[in-house]
Amino acid sequence: MTDIQAFLDQLYQRYQDLNVGQVASYIPELAKANPDYFGISVVTTDGRSFHAGDVDQQFTIQSISKVFVYGMALEDWGRDRLLEKVGVEPTGDPFNSLIRLDETSHRPENPMINAGAIATTSLIKGENLTARLNRLLAMFRRYVGQDVYVDMSTFLSERATGHRNRAIAHLMLNFGMIGDDLEESLDLYFQQCALLVTGRDLATMAAALANQGQHPLTCEQVLQPQYVRDILSVMYTCGMYNFAGEWAFRVGLPAKSGVSGGLMAVVPNQAGIAVYSPLLDSNGNSVRGLKVFEALSQEYGFHVFDLAMGHCRFQQSLSPQPSTSEP
């Protein structure tokens, strides 16, 4: 059994020179990312952290934001009301698909695809756009443990080129699935995707979900515990675009990826893990991130069914915490 810090260092060295994949370019600002950036972060539910590489490099959160905004909508509306607006079924279609709206229910299939995320964002309460944005920023600040900011260049880039997302929103408006404040909701969605985070931040946010909604460092309850299961369920089945099934088979953790290169996963009751590397495969997932998580899952028994059967070996890899007692 390899010590976790030593293993992270090994993985960083092993995959640092893996230059497979492409940086996302359909949002012009994302095309400027340095393909060499690579960082791995692990934060445990008791607040210990382990890192390798570029863990403090900022990038925009993109689709990973969908996880946390979904949690906020659950708190605003409750499980049953939200299910009337957004389903929880995997689609088998691309994340930006229009097809799944044109069905009997007219609701988006799940909150991890763009249609579902836009519908979810449209439900966030607030008297105007500024109030809604401030609520979102306050929510993300609780998860991260410090102030978060919108990258205005990326927001404006997404706003100027997000024609497909506008088409999705107009189709949902036609079906009565979102309100008339369509442009306001789209602006809010583009801004949530343009929030700046680091790999260290994402691992901390994932650790809060692993810890039943309690922040591992501040001990603040950032999400009502009854909704953590809902979020993790949707992450497990729908969080990895068209790779969700193979991810569940190979890695077996609730996870969410983003086209900026972030990849975040939750090890229930154990830790949050994040990888940042902007080189993406054809599904829009970080190539290095997939390699790292598969290796971590195999080494420590992170798969949910390993966890359920008591085969997780992660705690044995942690160095004992220093004693605080007096000699």
Structure, explained:
- The chain is an alpha+beta fold and 327 residues long.
- The protein is built from 14 helices and nine strands.
- It has helices at residues 4-15, 65-77, 79-85, 114-122, 129-144, 152-161, 163-174, 182-193, 199-210, 228-238, 244-250, 287-300, 304-308, 314-317, and strands spanning 22-23, 39-44, 49-53, 59-60, 196-197, 255-257, 262-267, 271-276, 279-280.
- α1 (4-15) packs antiparallel against α12 and α4 (114-122) crosses α8.
- The longest helix is centred in the middle third of the chain and has 16 residues, at 129-144.
- It is globular and about 55 Å long.
Instruction: Give Rg in angstroms.
Output: 19 Å
Percent range for β-strand residues: 5-15%
CATH architecture of the largest domain: 3-Layer(aba) Sandwich
Number of DSSP-assigned strands: 9
Secondary-structure element series: HEEEEHHHHHHHEHHHEEEEHHH
